[in-house]
Design brief:
With 166 residues, this protein is an alpha/beta fold. The strands form two sheets. A three-stranded parallel sheet has the order 3-4-5, sandwiched between helices. The chain has a two-stranded parallel ribbon with strand order 1-2. It is globular. The termini are far apart. It has helices at residues 2-15, 37-41, 57-63, 78-85, 98-101, 116-128, 130-147, 150-165; strands at residues 21-24, 48-52, 67-69, 90-93, 108-111. Helix 1 (2-15) packs across helix 6 and helix 4 (78-85) crosses helix 7 (130-147).
């Protein structure tokens, strides 16, 4: 979804030229379907930046307003949990794993995979509706606190184990 992200960012910048978009992560040179450096470089500008791999994604999330993950396929994404724990709303694809990590329209937005228009619209909604953004941020943190803490995970696993063994 990197190309969709870049294309949506370009559309948002036509209305909100002060916006900034930052991409983190590594290139997957072993995947023939992955985006190439040349493809990505065609989109980069002062407002659309590629920062590469980081060992400290938490600090990058804290510096951002929204986490955007327009994935085609995903497991239960840790970065979506981390974003919500940092009180950041999420825009992500309506696919298994991603949709399971957020509460639709309460902690973030779900977009149709490969749909640049949907993604750009949701990005602009974050900018245009500051009160809704505040609610999404607050809800994201509460959702993470209630569902993604170590104690919560341990307790859920214990219930599963007890059910299996009883």
């Amino acid at each position: 979804g990197v190309l969709e992200f870049c294309e949506a960012a370009k559309r948002v910048l036509t209305f909100y030229p002060q916006s900034e978009f930052v991409i983190y992560g590594s290139f997957d040179f072993t995947n023939p379907h992955a985006i190439s450096e040349k493809e990505l470089n065609a989109y980069l500008s002062k407002n659309i930046q590629y920062k590469g791999h980081t060992h400290d994604i938490r600090s990058k999330i804290l510096q951002s307003s929204v986490l955007v993950l327009p994935s085609y396929r995903e497991g239960f994404s840790k970065v979506l949990m981390e974003a919500q724990a940092c009180s950041k709303p999420v825009i992500t694809s309506d696919i298994s794993g991603c949709r399971d990590a957020i509460i639709k329209n309460k902690t973030g937005y779900l977009i149709q995979p490969r749909n640049t228009d949907d993604l750009a619209t949701r990005m602009m909604e974050m900018i245009e509706n500051p009160e809704n953004y505040k609610d999404l941020s607050k809800n994201a943190f509460m959702h993470a606190k209630e569902n993604f803490t170590l104690d919560t995970a341990v307790n859920k696993h214990l219930k599963i184990f007890n059910k299996i063994t009883s």
